[in-house]
Amino acid sequence: MRISLIQMNSKEGDRDFNVEKACLRAQEAISDHPDIIVLPEFFNTEYFPQYRDYKYMEYAERDDGYTISRVRELSKKYSVHIIATIYEREGPAFYYDTAMIINPEGKIIGKYRKVHPSAVKSLEKIYFKGGSSFFVFVINGWKVGIAICYDWRFPESIRCLALQGAELVVIPFATSTIDMWPKAMPTRAWENGLYIAACNKVGQEGDWNFPGGSMIVDPEGNIVKSAGNKEEIIMADLDLSLVYQAHVKSPTFRDRRPEVYKMISTFEEEIDSL
Predict the structure, then answer these.
(1) Residues in a beta bridge with 265
(2) Taking the domains of the chain in order of start, what are their residue ranges?
(3) Domain 2-273 in this protein, CATH class
(4) Out of 22, 138, 165, 249, which residue is the most buried by the measure of CB atoms under 10 Å away?
(5) Cα–Cα–Cα angle for 166, 96, 106, rounded to 5 degrees
(6) Which pTM value belongs to this model?
(7) What is the DSSP string of 36-80?
């Protein structure tokens, strides 16, 4: 499996410019013949949840809108899978942060909706609701899971994907804080025995500066490729045998004791009743 991550900056209030920029970067990545191209979270807009203003709800698009239609054309033209994450409008009351998986025929073969909208520094919960499930998709024989940005802070997110057999977890990001990434991303990969591909925004957007730092980590927690703090494309070849070797060396899934972990999936006020 060959994967390319497009680390890019997005221009304020200019969706069409951002989409065309992403498509141009994807065309650059095509020269390396990747199986999957990954775009950052909200690649088609500036990171608007840093502000509270309902005008930004106009940024939301359906999956047949301009952005995804353009990406679908690109996927079909170059016969490549693309994972593109947008602010999605499903209906009048249903808005999500959604990663679309588009196959080489230009079809949307799956969606993952961010389960944990952030309300730490950002105001994401004002703009969209959280999804309710973690999914694994098969891409070129690999089991691929998706998490989005703040999801990574919850170990349960990646573990849910790993328990479904995920061999690679793709994480589109729009985060201004990556201080813990050199420790945390390798830990998430190592403790679950899988590859992690984290693709971030970079540069100034509104009041926030995105530091980039996109990275690809192998199942033993080694950073195989990482980006700096500028727009760039990083690529790596992934070896499925390393996933199996990781689980042989550290058979923690064999030794799991789900029957004693009920507290993890219990609401705090109900813990005393366990």
Answers:
(1) none
(2) 2-273
(3) alpha beta
(4) 22
(5) 65
(6) 0.97
(7) EEEEEETTTS--GGGS--GGGGGG-B-TTSHHHHHHHHHHHHHT-
